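Changelog note: in this version the structure field was regenerated for every chain. One regenerated record is shown below for reference.
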Amino acid sequence: MKEVIIALVSSSIAIVITSFFNYHFQLMKEIRNESVKYKTEILKSVYTPILKILVAVVVPGDGYDGITKETLFEIEDIIKRNYELVDPDLDSIIWLLKKEVRVEHYEESSKLFDKNKKLLCHVEHNFNFYRKRLGLPFDKVKIKKVF
């Protein structure tokens, strides 16, 4: 009789421990899947469209000189549509550029902003950071760059 009780207790303890670990690992898997989903959405909705706009203004041979206010408004439109996905650093860079546009030469459409490449560096870094986190090909140089 004693052996039966010991067997029942030990199997019950094993079942409880197994259930706990199963629950814990399932919860971690769900959190990881949600994280991948959000990172994919951030990459597709925010950084890829902005990087496409910024790459379009790069002059072959000369490089990146800055963006016009029209380009800034295109980027701002992307940010407004996906504001819940935008990180605070990108938001503050955009606000600084908008302030610069407002203070300086708003009427000049050919005036270039972001000459210090802060926006470009931030977007390239985060674009490659999210690609790395998702297991996609990325530029190692852009990840290591600290601005």
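Spot check on this record: The mean pLDDT is 86. Residues 83 and 90 are 11 Å apart (CA to CA).
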